[in-house]
Amino acid sequence: MKIRYELIIYWSDVDQAFIVEVPELPGCMADGETYQAAVQNAEVVIGEWIETAQALGRPIPEPKGRLLFA
Q1: pLDDT, tens digit, for every residue of 17-64?
Q2: Residue 20, SS3 per DSSP
Q3: Which of 16, 26, 28, 32 could staple 37 via S-S, CB 3.0–4.6 A?
């Protein structure tokens, strides 16, 4: 899957993991022990988020790329 949504990736000392947030998809987050694992997990979660939204008949936001306020 090609990711076209902006990913915000940071290290969490509390969780001892990399956290990935996808701001354009409300509530869409993933984590991983490594940066690469976190991004791979985010790819899976993005796919699941989109599948769930489709199943529920909810709109899927178009990727905008870099957010203006970032």
Answers
A1: 999 999 999 999 999 999 999 999 999 999 999 999 999 999 999 998
A2: strand
A3: 32
